[in-house]
Structures are given as C-alpha cells and as structure tokens.
Amino acid sequence: MPAAVVPPPKDAIWTWKGVHLFTSLVKPIFCRLSIEGREHIPETGGCVLTCNHTMGPDFLVIGYLSPRQIYFMVKSELMDRHPSFGRFLAYNGCFPIRRGDGDKEAITHAVEVVKSGHVLGMFPEGTRSRSGKLQRGRTGAAYVAIQAQSPVVPAVVINSEPIFHRSNYLSLKPRVAVTARVGAPIYPPTEQDDRHSLRRFTRDIMDAMADMLPAAMRDGLESEPE
Predict the structure, then answer these.
(1) Buried-exposed string 58-92: b where 16+ CB fall within 10 A, e elsewhere
(2) DSSP readout, 151-176?
(3) Fewest Cβ atoms nearer than 10 Å: which of 108, 120, 132, 207?
C-alpha cells in the first residue's frame, strides 16, 4: 500500500491526528515507505502490536501506518528527562515503564489498556538492536496478551535506520526505501499462570516477526530456553 494514502486513525485524539498529518507532509523528504498487511490490525477490540526495535524511528513508522491510535509503553528515562515532551507523550496515551526492575504497575496498566479495547504498542526485544538483527524476545508482550486474552499483531520495520541521516535527506538521490509489514494476529494460550506457555507464546511472537524479515535481520534471533 502506498503510504501516501494512509488516512489518520478515526479513534485518535486531535494531537495524534495532527502529528499524522505533519508526517504525511514531510515523509517524502525522508523516505519512500511501503506498507504491507495493514489490514491485519483489528478494527476494534484490544490487541498488542509488537514490532522489532532498531536504531531507526520504527515507532514513528508503526504509529503512522496504524489505522488506530497506539498506546505505547515508553522507558521512564525518556519521559523524565524531558518533562514537556513527557507530558505530550502521556497526553497521547503513552505511559512509562522502569526497565530492569520488574515494573508491575506499568505491566498492570498495560493489561488494562488492552482490556479497555485499545492497541498497545510494545517492542518485545526490550532494547534497540544496534546490529539491526532481531534479538531474543522478552516475555512482557506475551504476558500482557495472555492476561488480557487478546491477540498479538506482529509487525516489523525494515531499513528505517537511515531515515534521519543527513546523507539521506540532503542527498539528490532517491530517499531510502523503508518497508513496514504487519502479520496476521496470533492468539494467546488460555493458561494465564503457566511459565512454559508464556515462553512458548513469546517464541511464537518472535518467530512470526522473524518470518517477515530478510534473512540478514533474523540471524541473531535466539530462542529463550524453557
């Protein structure tokens, strides 16, 4: 789907729609965006939208292509470091998570976001991949989906790293080609407190994402042991 025809989400608040419009206007300066599988994102109901996390602005690409507003889980350092920006993010549905110390409050809120019928955006790798290769998945996204009994929609963004490089947007050459793919929903197991089911479902999510990536980006994927 040509990205130029992507309309703003109907359920989004006015600031989200404003950012979407601005992105539509400036996008040709930075990239040539191709979108595949956008129809896999459910029109209604809660779901967890997972995406790979490279050094590029993959969150912007996913937020732009989604037909619904996404409620992103954001690292607390980012929201705390820039208070005004943090308030803007919070107004648009984002909420902080303290990484590395088991932020149960954030996870509980994430489950409630999905149960309330919203799209929750998560990066199951937990941190950005400097190599661009898909890393081992953590269990957070799978846990939220299982507790909410809502599907996971896997997505990937390919080649977004050069988008904001001067050598790209100040070049006379065609802008970098970026591809975003969305896969079919994956439904969680019904066992909400089974550790093995949680790990298997995490692997299912990562495998679905890996299947949409070129071979060079999935070479680093490791399976989490039982």
Answers:
(1) bbbbbbbbbbbbbbbbbbeeebeeeeeebeebeeb
(2) -EEEEEEES-TTTT-HHHHT-SSPPE
(3) 108
Task: Name all domains of the chain by residue range, CATH numbers in brackets.
Answer: 3-213 (3.40.1130.10)
| pLDDT value at 104 more than 50 | yes
**pLDDT recorded at residue 126:** 85
Digit-coded pLDDT (tens) for 9-22: 989 999 999 999 99
pTM for this model (two decimals) = 0.90
What DSSP character marks residue 186? B
Contact by Cβ (8 Å): 121, 180 = no
Q: Dihedral of the CA atoms 123, 127, 133, 136 (nearest 10)?
A: -80
CA 38 to chain centre: 13
pLDDT of residue 223: 45
**β-strands 152-158, 47-51: how paired?**
parallel
Cα 180 to Cα 175: distance, rounded to the nearest angstrom: 16
| Residue carrying structure tokens 């790990």 | 199
Task: Please tell me the distance from the alpha carbon of residue 181 to that of residue 211, in angstroms, as a whole number.
Answer: 10
